[in-house]
Amino acid sequence: MGGGSNRGGAGEVSGSDHDGGLRKPLLHTGSWYRMTSRQSSVAPGASSMAVLRESHVSAFLCTLIVALGPIQFGFTSGFSSPTQDAMARDLNLSISEFSAFGSLSNVGAMVGAIASGQMAEHIGRKGSLMIAAILNIIGWLAISFAKDASFLYMGRLLEGFGVGIISYTLSVTFGIFLAYLLGMFVPWRLLAVIGALPCTVLIPGLFFIPESPRWLAKMNLMEDCETSLQVLRGFETDITTEVNDIKRDVTSSSKRTTISFQELNQKKYHTPLLLGIGLLVLQNLSGINGVLFYASSIFKAAGVTNSDLATCSLGAIQILATGVTTWLLDRAGRRMLLIISTSGMTLCLLAVSVVFFLKDKISQDSNSYYILTMISLVAIVAFVITFSFGMGAIPWLMMSEILPVSIKSLGGSIAALANWLTSFAITMTTNLMLTWSVGGPHHTFLVFQL
């Protein structure tokens, strides 16, 4: 490619480097850490502890900046829960209109998930995140200044496209909690402006972190590849072996032919593909996004006096549960965690369904009603905890592991599309089902349990 020929070797003069940067700014990884890396490697008088601290700061900065993307993802997911009543009142929205608003982020995410692969291929991971951040900011501002439902829909679609490019990590749960917490204290329009802040910080931050070494190698920018990898691994680390591995992988992948949909239909691919897609579809059919998107309304229907506080507590508990899961993954085994997770979720959903059924039969002033309210509160929280223990992260991990390398890109895109499609169906229908009739909550959780 043209970008590769412009950056041919390490002996290239700085003027050529600068010109290349002007032509294709997203292909280059910045200069601050290139200079730092070279200084660290050629300064024999520097203490090893100083170099170690320097590398730790660089790695921490990269992690912190990139984590803003998933936080934005979580904020988008959690926004609809604390804002439903105020938005419906201010803009005169019906239940179906707000349900469409809540679920349209999934439609945008379908497009974003499909486009992310090609975007990352042509402009790199940093360029993809930059576009995602800009679209998210525009989306949040459209929501904040919305005069009617059409502005909300446009904003939610743009947000969804952005989050479809961003990966799922622990910081997503922090973003959900942040939306729940701030939603207790600030108006929804201001909350939408706050929602744009992570991406507002992410955009300038992307100029200070390296591009993916593997992508730089694919672009034949080997000097930048080595510098980027040195920053990510630490300036004191010998990266020679890993650089050679990356070169070998890139050469091998360039020779590999892209598999087509027709070839994907081969019998040998059926089992891993169906297993990967099935896990991601079941993840959403459990109703988790319906619970997280409309947690405040669910707690209110359950009779919880302070539904906003309960929702905020739910978000905090989810962070803790997800953190514990990252520790358990390699210790308890994924199969065991999936069994515990799905069994626990089934029991919790059944308990919530039974509680809502019984509450319709008794007086709200009775002690039994209060007891049932507490049971429903505990069961909903336990449902989110057990989801986090297995079904939250393991389906994505297993999909990346069980898909053969030859179909990982296409198969992963199909699985992601199925995931977002079922997420849209759940988030669109949950709110409608909850208000469908007097027994709406009971039927909703009964369906999720099945």
UniProtKB/TrEMBL annotation:
Residues 1-12 have a biased composition (Gly residues). The keyword Transport applies. It is a multi-pass membrane protein. GO terms for cellular component: membrane. The keyword Transport applies. The chain crosses the membrane at residues 57-75, 95-115, 127-145, 165-183, 190-209, 273-295, 307-329, 335-358, 370-394. One of its GO terms (molecular function) is sugar transmembrane transporter activity. Keywords: Membrane, Sugar transport, Transmembrane, Transmembrane helix, Transport. Residues 1-23 are annotated as: Disordered. CDD domains: MFS_GLUT6_8_Class3_like. InterPro entries: MFS, MFS_dom, MFS_ERD6/Tret1-like, MFS_sugar_transport-like, MFS_trans_sf, MFS_Trehalose_Transporter, Sugar/inositol_transpt, Sugar_transporter_CS. Residues 62-450 form the Major facilitator superfamily (MFS) profile domain. It is found in: Membrane. Pfam families: MFS_1, Sugar_tr. Belongs to the major facilitator superfamily. Sugar transporter (TC 2.A.1.1) family. This is Major facilitator superfamily (MFS) profile domain-containing protein.
